[in-house]
Design brief:
The protein has 240 residues and is an alpha/beta fold. It has one domain: Spore Coat Polysaccharide Biosynthesis Protein SpsA, Chain A (Alpha-Beta Complex). The protein is built from seven helices and seven strands; from the N terminus they run βαβαβαβαβαβαβα.
Length: 240
Amino acid sequence: MVPQIAIVVPVFNEEANIVPLVTEIAQVFRAEIRPWQLVLVDDASTDGTWSAICAQRALDPRVFGIRHRKNAGQSAAVWTGISQTTAPFLCTLDGDLQNDPSELPRMLQLLDQADFVCGHRVARQDSFVRKVSSRVARSVRSWSLGWDFADTGCALRAFKRSSLAGVFPFNGLHRFLPILVAGNGSQVLEVPVKHRPRTAGVSKYGVWNRLGRGLFDLVGMAWYQRRRLPAIETESTRPD
């Protein structure tokens, strides 16, 4: 059957997390009557991540693996997973198991009320410095972009593919996706979600290696938001 739900997970050097991730998602979606697939996008890992994905694929045909030949970053991995699937409903989450997959069925149900549902980590299991930097980033984003989402960095999301109309891929896309979707007129709903500490693997991100990139992306997004063409109502002389 053609999948109606695609769960896209970007991974990089997450060998130890692949089996528990696949197992947990299969358990969470055991009662889902719509056909679904789990799309694991390996961003050119240097450990055994790809072998682990292939092993899970052999055990469960709902697991779909895609591998980048060169490391391209989280945004590229997310976009690869989205663009190489056709399911009308999409979910995303990080591959480090800090996002709780059990939130996804509830978020999918909320798509009756909205086009895009994004998580807000209310009890973040991160360092003090990372939590403070996120608060500062929220204030700057709100001031410069005009949208006040509490946690655009949360990868736990469920949305209709149709909400991506007009959204284009770029490095940093995953951090601004709720803003881009809201800007195209889609209804965005932010909901509180659980957050868990990392138990395996090593975080690939730090405060300082994201600061410069974040500021650069913010300037670009601010320009785009101000120059973006609004939806325009039209009429035509063409026959029905």
